[in-house]
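Weekly sync, protein design subgroup
Attendees: M.S., D.O., the rotation student, P.L. (late)

Item 1: inverse folding check
M.S. brought a backbone from last month's batch and wanted to see whether the design step gives back something sensible before we order anything. D.O. pointed out we never logged the input encoding, so this time it goes straight into the notes. Structure tokens as presented (494 positions):
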């Protein structure tokens, strides 16, 4: 019998004649265990020959129960059964794997049949050997696909249904094989009505079977009546799109410096609040299992990762730039495509963009009034797969512009990358050193002597109303495509 949450999964024939034919077990040549076929169980012959069907082993662990029963001596010697040992592995909470170790006595083959009676009789075979049963509150899967050469069917079985011995019929999953040695595996799992029952993987390796479910592997050694199971572990820790190079599964504590609000791409500076996040993930060592992550209140602090019984911690530290985003009143461009106007670069959407082809193409943002700006950010179309080259110029009146640096994007993110303007307390590059654009445009020599890129250190920035970005294509061609731009000044008191 198998019962889950008050509903029968497998049933027997009830309070009637004690015949094997109506139970979830083995028939040999169409016959079952001794002592049945009468209203009351008759044990005399079993006692006389000191038959001892018995439980050989039973153990319970955190995620499973395992027990072994030897029913060989419950069958009459005349049936020629040398061995019938059943191994049952309960994979909590919703699967049971049954491994039957069956052998015939002597050199002759025997007809063996295993029966499994589901309480409910509505069935569909969605794959060979896999029988889906529709229950009252849940679905049941009886998987006989690893039956060691046996043939399974869902058919009517004539059994005794009344205490008087009157015959009737009930459908059962039946697995048959004629042989001398047989080790079929039957997996029974269940789920709610709106879900598919878990499918448990099974692989044979000599005298052992490996079952895989919910990210764990359970190994049953039939000969030794032994169970081993591999717990899921952690294979890697991913932070902002990059794996920890120093990760070692034996090491439980790590630290990570996320200074500057480095968002999701190696080295790219992300300062916008909605994108400047610490995204931390644990990658389990096996499919189907999950890593549970306890996060701190803010983005900095201790992140705790738990996989199975193992727990890891990552101390994330950092200090965000104290920047204030300046509103942009309008945007103009020297060129643009019909469906990609300059207004798309300031509409706040990450799904539209301004685009134009060629060298020296400019995009100019008007802040409406002069502001002490110190930097800007740009989200490039296909920014995670190509590096874009450009210069920045600022102006108070829109007539005379001053060049404020030569830049290149990281080519590692589609998010808005932050760049420090020349003279605002930082350098012009995207990651530290000033970049050298192609064809001698600008150059590192013009930017020598600039300070550290992360230090706005009280510098209010230079006054400007207009920010003009002049583009020179990218590593894949001459198209210049900007999804969004933002302009920043230091916060008051920073």
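Designed sequence read out in the meeting:
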């Amino acid at each position: 019998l198998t019962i889950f949450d008050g509903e029968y999964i497998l049933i027997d024939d009830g309070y009637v004649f004690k015949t094997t034919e109506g139970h979830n077990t083995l028939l040999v040549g169409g016959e079952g265990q001794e002592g049945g076929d009468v209203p009351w169980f008759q044990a005399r012959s079993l006692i006389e020959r000191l038959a001892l069907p018995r439980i050989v082993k039973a153990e319970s662990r955190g995620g499973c129960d395992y027990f072994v029963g030897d029913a060989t001596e419950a069958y009459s010697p005349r049936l020629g059964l040398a061995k019938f040992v059943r191994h049952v592995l309960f994979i909590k909470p919703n699967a049971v794997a049954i491994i039957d170790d069956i052998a015939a006595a002597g050199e002759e083959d025997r007809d063996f049949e295993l029966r499994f009676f589901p309480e409910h009789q509505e069935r569909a075979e969605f794959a060979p050997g896999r029988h889906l049963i529709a229950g009252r509150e849940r679905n049941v899967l009886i998987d006989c696909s690893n039956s060691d050469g046996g043939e399974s069917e869902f058919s009517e079985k004539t059994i005794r249904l009344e205490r008087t011995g009157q015959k009737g019929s009930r459908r059962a999953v039946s697995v048959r094989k004629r042989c001398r040695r047989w080790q079929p595996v039957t997996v029974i799992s269940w789920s709610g009505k709106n879900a598919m029952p878990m499918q448990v993987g099974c692989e044979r390796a000599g005298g052992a079977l490996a079952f895989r479910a919910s990210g764990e592997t359970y190994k049953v050694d039939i000969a030794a009546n032994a169970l081993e199971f591999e717990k899921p572990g952690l294979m890697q820790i991913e932070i902002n799109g990059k794996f920890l190079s120093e990760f070692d599964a034996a090491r439980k504590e790590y630290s990570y410096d996320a200074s500057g609000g480095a968002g999701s791409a190696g080295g790219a500076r992300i300062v916008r609040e909605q994108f400047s996040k610490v995204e931390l993930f644990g990658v389990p060592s096996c499919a189907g299992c999950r890593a549970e992550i306890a996060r701190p209140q803010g983005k900095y602090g201790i992140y705790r990762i738990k996989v199975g019984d193992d727990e890891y911690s990552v101390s994330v530290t950092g200090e965000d730039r104290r920047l204030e985003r300046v509103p942009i009143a309008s945007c103009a461009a020297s060129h643009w495509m019909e469906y990609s106007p300059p207004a798309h670069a300031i509409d706040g959407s990450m799904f539209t963009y301004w685009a134009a082809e060629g060298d020296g193409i400019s995009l100019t943002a008007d802040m409406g009034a002069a502001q002490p700006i110190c930097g800007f950010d740009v989200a490039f179309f296909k920014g995670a797969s190509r590096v874009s080259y450009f210069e920045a110029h600022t102006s108070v009146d829109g007539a005379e512009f001053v060049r404020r640096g030569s830049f290149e994007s990281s080519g590692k993110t589609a998010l808005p990358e932050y760049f420090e303007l020349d003279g605002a307390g930082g350098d012009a590059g995207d990651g530290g050193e000033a970049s050298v654009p192609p064809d001698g445009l600008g150059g590192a020599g013009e930017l020598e002597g600039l300070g550290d890129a992360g230090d706005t250190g009280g510098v209010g920035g230079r006054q400007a109303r207009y920010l003009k970005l002049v583009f020179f294509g990218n590593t894949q061609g001459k198209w210049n495509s900007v999804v969004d731009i933002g302009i920043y000044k230091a916060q008051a008191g920073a």
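Discussion: The CA atoms of residues 237 and 244 lie 6 Å apart. The chain has a mean pLDDT of 84.
Action: P.L. to compare against the previous round before Friday.
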